[in-house]
Amino acid sequence: MNRLRFLSLLLLVFLVSCSRNESYVIHGDLRFVNASRAYLLEQDELGELVVRDSTSIRGGVFYFRGRVKSPTMMYVQVGKRHPIDVLVENTKIKMTGSILLPDEIKVKGSRSHNEFVVLQKEMMKLKDEHSLLLIELTNAKKQNNVNRVKTLTKQYNEASEKLLAYTQRFVAGNPTSVGAAYFVCMLMQYFDVSKLKDIILSFDSSIADNQYVRFLNEELALNQKLSVASEAPEFFLPTLDGDTVSLANYQGQYVFIDFWASWCERSAERRDRIAKSYEKYKGMGFNVLAVSLDREEEAWSKAVEQKVYGWKEASDLLYWESPISKVYRVHQIPYGVLIGPDGRIISINPRRYMLEAKLSNIFGY
């Protein structure tokens, strides 16, 4: 082999090795910064923000360098300011703007981030439209204007459907977009996964290993198992009194599994409302099992002791990693599932009035 050919092959190997070791560079150039350090945060498996990296700031300029397996949502925090989200991929990314106006900071260089921002803007439009409609709905209800309430409710639902349709068109045109996949993960807070099915199935197989696409496909698979009229998944959980409770303990009864936590204020309000239904129907075969997503036994037991409702209190203290939260697809709390005497699901996360209406139909008053 001659020297020239050898050098050519060596250069080729070098270039290939470089392409396999791509990295990201986040270049921040922000105005009105008086902090000395910037932090790069990432969500851990429990959904909490942890520090992945930190760097010094000089004249508002800072750099982060690293590598990700695939585009990953991270957060840049300057001093004690609110973190700025950046969908990081292995490329050069630049952040510019004023730290005093975090919503107006521009992020350039990441295709995934840009695609996420496009969809996020549509979400903001929906939220603005919903806010205006809710104000009108409140006024219409105060005036007992039934026809107006029906019209506004229809408009409210149609606005949501428009966002879904827009997202589906976007994914159909950009099936390899990880930014869109992350956005669809966010949509799961507002829509049942069954409504997102066609969107999820539109993603290209080339990004199937991305964490957000995997999550969506796993949720879709779970949804097929966890649906109204399907058999509720069995579980075994330790109770606060040192016993163990399972779904089998409620065979022959209607049971509402209430997912809550001591740190969630809305959970406390919901428990008070459920208690009224419990007192009303407990003598007729209705029961409640409260499953806490706490991770500190002291906080959990203290919250339970403040108000005793009479039903079982259970938790494995594994927070969002609790196996029961995964099989029952709990993404936010409060959350609940109503199960019938035959062990089949009657309703998934019914709202207050829906749960009361179902119980009224079941028990006749």
Explain what you see:
The protein is 41% helix and 23% strand. It contains ten helices and 15 strands. A five-stranded mixed beta sheet has the order 13-12-11-14-15, covered by helices on one side. Strands 4-1-7-8 form a four-stranded mixed beta sheet. It has a four-stranded antiparallel beta sheet with strand order 3-2-5-6. Strand 5 and strand 6 (84-88) form a beta hairpin. Helix 2 (111-142) runs antiparallel to helix 3, helix 4 (178-187) runs parallel beside helix 6 and helix 7 packs parallel to helix 10 (352-363). The longest helix is centred in the middle third of the chain and has 32 residues, at 111-142. It is globular, with a radius of gyration of 25 Å. Mean pLDDT is 89; it is low at 1-20.
Total count of helical runs of at least 4 residues: 10
The percentage of residues in β strands lies in: 15-25%
What is the number of strand segments?
A: 15
Task: Please state the overall shape, judged from the principal axes of the Cα atoms.
Answer: globular
What structural category characterises the helix and strand content?
alpha+beta
Mean pLDDT: 89
List unreliable stretches of 5+ residues. Answer: 1-20
**End-to-end CA span:** 91 Å
Strand ordering within the main sheet: 13-12-11-14-15
The biggest beta sheet is recorded as: 5 strands, mixed
Secondary-structure element order, N to C: HEEEEEEEEHHHHHEEEHEHEHEEH
Rg, nearest Å: 25 Å
Q: Approximately how much helix is present in the residues? A: 40-55%
